[in-house]
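Dear H.,

Thanks for agreeing to be a second pair of eyes. The structure we're designing against is below in token form, covering all 193 positions.
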């Protein structure tokens, strides 16, 4: 692939990923934690990973993150949430890439997607404990301890954990569908299809 075509594809996938970050395209999954919303920005990033390579996927993720901050900044929630999102998506895409980078089989995809989802969920769980909950309380006046019956434990185990597990499954299923539809496409060539 020529460098011009590669840069064009990176720009297009970054733009699509950023558009998917628009608040009106995000959706609530669990009403109890209605401020946690599913966003599908990972899908163009994964297309970039499996058409251009892992490094290009990180470039697309970085561009998307910067543009999200500039275009859809909602204050402390964006400043606190975006680093967590960047880290969790990075972990998911690296694990999935590791399993299917050379050959895509159903079993390899399922293992990679399952481990990616578990790691994604673990990252979000831990970053909530270590980073987000204290930061939201300090900078956004958003104290989880008093907002949920059962406090932080209820929020983590009944909110963060199931939300991120389901979100990871949504990512895995949606990308499997996209991959299946695009793998025979003449415009986008997956390098391991």
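And this is the sequence the design step returned. I haven't edited it by hand at all.
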């Amino acid at each position: 692939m020529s460098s011009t075509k590669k840069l064009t594809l990176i720009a297009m996938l970054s733009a699509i990923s950023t558009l998917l970050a628009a608040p009106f395209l995000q959706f609530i999954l669990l009403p109890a934690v209605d401020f946690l919303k599913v966003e599908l920005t990972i899908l163009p990033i994964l297309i970039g990973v499996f058409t251009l390579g892992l490094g290009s996927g990180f470039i697309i993720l970085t561009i998307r993150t910067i543009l999200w901050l500039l275009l859809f900044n909602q204050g402390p929630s964006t400043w606190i949430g975006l680093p967590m999102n960047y880290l969790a998506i990075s972990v998911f895409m690296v694990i999935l890439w590791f399993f299917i980078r050379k050959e895509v089989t159903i079993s390899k995809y399922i293992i990679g997607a399952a481990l990616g989802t578990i790691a994604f969920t673990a990252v979000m769980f831990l970053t909530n404990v270590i980073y987000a909950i204290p930061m939201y309380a300090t900078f956004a006046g958003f104290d989880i301890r008093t907002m949920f019956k059962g406090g932080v434990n209820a929020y983590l185990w009944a909110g963060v954990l199931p939300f991120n597990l389901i979100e990871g499954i949504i990512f895995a299923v949606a990308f499997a569908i996209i991959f299946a539809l695009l793998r025979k496409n003449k415009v986008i060539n997956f390098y391991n299809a």
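Two observations from my side: The helical segments are 3-19, 42-52, 54-71, 76-100, 106-140, 144-147, 151-182. Strands lie at 27-28, 37-38.

Warmly,
E.
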